Here is the input.
Amino acid sequence: MSRLAVITGAGSGIGAAIARELQARGYDVVPTDVDLSSAEETAATCDAPGAYRLDVTDAVDVVRTLEEITARHGPVSVVVCNAGVSRMRRFLDISPEELGRTLDVNLRGVFLTGQAAARMMVRAGAGGCIVNVASMAGKQGRVPFLADYVASKFGVVGLTQAMAVELAEHNIRVNSVCPGYVVTPMQERELTWEAELRGTTPEAVRELYVADTPLARLEQPADVARAVAFLVSEDAAFVTGESLAVNGGAFMD
Ligand SMILES: NC(=O)c1ccc[n+]([C@@H]2O[C@H](COP(=O)([O-])OP(=O)(O)OC[C@H]3O[C@@H](n4cnc5c(N)ncnc54)[C@H](O)[C@@H]3O)[C@@H](O)[C@H]2O)c1
Here is the structure.
């Protein structure tokens, strides 16, 4: 079976860590991102055969780029739908445009990427694995200032189950990971927004995140990446439709 893995939003944070982790485990990884130069930077750290600009909100771009990757590098066996955005606002203040943007990237983007990837995998007839990066905010709404994000990530958890059911007959497994408080550029932005909204400092908010985590530290991108590596491995051969909590115990269901 091919060992080619495509990752969206791989120019930063969790996506870049997933690329490095899968490469360390013997995959040829192809980082993609809406920001090509960041995908290229990740590619340089994981000996990737190429890096591509891929905007997950653009249905045509998603199909074209995945087909180009297949034509150049061979059949894709793993796709990680990681690209996501957040903007902290009070529920009462979120505009229709902001709601649309969040749902477009975080939910529609996962749908479009997963559908295009699955169609290619079905055509190739060799099965495959899809992992969606959801969030602990995809399983609990007790998350302040992220109502649109919560809605998008609950959507990803449900979508993961629906895809897993329909794609099982094609030997395609579909799972999600649900990270907690991960140290990434997204978190840096959220610390500033949350501090403003709470009338405190980013450092104080960071301490709240640690205090909320039984394992008593912030999560690292590599913590998420190792869970993704497990889900795409043979160790998880009978796991599908799962949304795996990877959050140091910050939320248990
Ligand atoms: N950081 C956390 O605490 C945390 C927790 C739970 C879940 N997540 C999820 O993990 C994923 C990665 O988050 P991160 O913290 O690494 O964020 P990040 O902002 O560091 O990286 C996100 C990447 O996605 C890319 N991106 C944005 N819009 C895109 C689009 N339309 N098409 C393709 N790429 C696009 C960005 O350019 C960026 O490189 C997201 O889905 C996020 O919701 C993050």
In short: Residues 96-124 form the longest helix (29 residues). The pocket of nicotinamide-adenine-dinucleotide is lined by residues 8-9, 11-15, 33-35, 38, 54-57, 82-85, 105, 109, 133, 135, 179, 181-182, 184-187 (CB under 6 Å).
